[in-house]
Specification:
By secondary structure, this protein is α/β, with parallel strands linked by helices. The protein contains six helices and nine strands, in the order αββααβαββββαβαβ.
Length: about 170
């Protein structure tokens, strides 16, 4: 199964800049069996774990997050870039390799004590994932786990996020 999924990930050298090897998920998204398999492999470790909500970050986290939420019979919460949410919100600033960024979530998105799974397509340095986990906890949610399709293990994002219930389907060094 892992080999089949990896064959659906296209390597694009020198994108978005020279020296970067981009892992393009669009062929996987276009393959019905591959997409279904990826979603199931992301959701399976969290079955029976009483997940109330799945959180996904803009934008590819929306794709996998909603599918995983449906698979787990959980609700779905969006995390967006600044200025895109219409209601009262909370925000979290986080460090990038060369600067800072910010994410926002509606202030009423999570009820204290809800068990939350944070989902994204990719774990690289961990900044986005850590910010999402921090937003969940700021609202009183319990981060019950983290699931990603792809982990770039050489960038040490897992260590930065530091969650014991972290699951990645595909790992690349």
């Amino acid at each position: 199964m892992i080999t089949r999924l990896k064959k659906l990930i296209r390597d694009v050298p020198d994108f978005p800049k020279k020296g970067i090897l981009f892992r393009d998920i669009t062929p996987l998204l276009a393959d019905p069996a591959g997409l279904a398999m990826a979603v199931e492999m992301m959701a399976n470790p969290f079955r029976g774990k009483n997940i109330d909500l799945v959180v996904g970050a803009e934008s590819r986290g929306f794709i996998f997050g909603t599918a995983v939420a449906c698979s787990l019979s959980a609700g779905f919460i969006i995390v967006r870039k600044p200025g895109k949410l219409p209601h009262k919100k909370i925000s979290m600033e986080y460090n990038l390799e060369y600067g800072k960024d910010q994410l926002e979530m509606h202030a009423d998105a999570i009820v204290r004590g809800q068990r939350v799974l944070v989902v994204d397509d990719l774990l690289a340095t961990g900044g986005t994932m850590q910010a999402c986990c921090d937003l969940v906890e700021q609202l009183g949610g319990i981060v019950a786990g983290v699931a990603v399709l792809i982990e770039l293990a050489g960038l040490n994002g897992r260590e930065r996020v530091g969650r014991p219930q972290m699951h990645s389907v595909l790992k690349y060094e």
